[in-house]
Specification:
With 281 residues, the protein is mainly β. It folds into 2 domains: 116 residues, Hypothetical protein, similar to alpha- acetolactate decarboxylase, domain 2 (60s Ribosomal Protein L30, Chain: A); 123 residues, 60s Ribosomal Protein L30, Chain: A (2-Layer Sandwich), CATH 3.30.1330. Helices cover 8% and strands 52% of the residues. The chain has a 16-stranded antiparallel beta sheet that branches. It has a two-stranded antiparallel ribbon with strand order 4-5. A two-stranded antiparallel ribbon has the order 12-13. Strand 8 and strand 9 form a beta hairpin. The longest helix is centred in the last third of the chain and has 12 residues.
Length: 281
């Protein structure tokens, strides 16, 4: 399994876990304002502190995004591409977003797949303040009260990252947990470890993050060092997994090379972070 050396000291805690109180939600996002504001407005109306939300099939009047890129210096192991833009109408095919806070304000981190009108599918990291819906859309997922992700500096990676924050509940009492995975650990294995630490038999996994390339069960490989992924379907098991690995969509520095499939277990290390919501099952 590949590994990278980050610029800062290696943090002792590799799985940051916060059991949380949550409930299923369906939020209507209004058109005609920046996408990040539309999400914040809908969250506030429901009294939510944080959320994992997904959108399928939404129409946008504009959408800006970036994809992974090699770092231009030694301050980080990876960076972002120049901004890419539809410059006109298009559609979101699928978008997953972790919604939390940054210096007291609502902030979302989203990865997804989209396309301009009549154009090819692309994948990347949405720039929510620069994106606008053309019509109202429904975002479904899990809303949290008393817990959320908050952006805080991470000395190891030298990035400001989402980290779990808020009121902790006992794992036995909670049906949800916010989880941040640190770099250089196998993604599938860390999910199982987290489930065991919570004292849960199993959990459905929602979230996004970055991997050091990707090796799939079918033998195919995405060789890009920096990537960004979105979980499509994944389960964690306390006893460890012998079945299929997490199913993801992923993109690297070659933006048109978008892969979907089940990851091979023990072969896929987290690059910078994975931000996850585990749902007990």
């Amino acid at each position: 399994m590949r590994a990278v050396t980050h610029p800062g000291p290696v943090a002792e805690e590799r799985e940051e876990i916060l059991p949380a109180e949550g409930r299923p939600v369906a939020l209507t996002l209004n058109a005609g304002l920046p996408f990040e504001d539309a999400v914040a407005e809908a969250m506030a109306a429901e009294g939510l502190d944080g959320a994992w939300l997904e959108i399928e099939e939404a129409i946008v009047s504009s959408l800006d995004y970036v994809i992974p890129a090699l770092s231009p210096d030694e301050d980080h192991v990876a960076w972002y591409s120049d901004i890419r833009s539809f410059g006109g109408p298009g559609r979101i095919e699928r978008l997953g977003m972790m919604v939390g806070r940054d210096n007291g304000a609502s902030f979302l981190h989203g990865h997804g797949l989209w396309a301009p009108a009549g154009g090819e599918i692309a994948m990347g990291h949405i720039l929510a303040p620069r994106t606008m819906l053309a019509a109202p859309a429904v975002a479904r997922g899990i809303g949290l009260t008393g817990a959320r992700f908050e952006r805080r500096p991470d000395p190891e990676t030298n990035f400001t990252l989402f980290r779990p924050s808020g009121e902790e509940r006992g794992g036995d009492d909670a049906d949800y947990a916010l989880v941040r995975l640190a770099p250089n650990q196998d993604f599938a294995g860390a999910l199982d470890t987290t489930c065991a630490r919570l004292g849960w038999e199993g959990a459905q996994v929602h979230g996004l993050g970055s991997l050091i390339g990707a090796t799939f069960e079918d033998g195919s490989v995405l060789g890009s060092l920096p990537t960004e992924f979105l979980v499509l379907d994944a389960e964690a098991r306390a006893e460890g997994g012998s079945g299929s690995g997490p199913e993801i969509a992923i993109v690297g520095i070659e933006g048109r090379d978008i892969r979907e499939g089940a990851l091979k277990r023990s072969e896929n290390a987290v690059l910078i972070t994975a931000e996850l919501l585990l749902e007990r099952c």
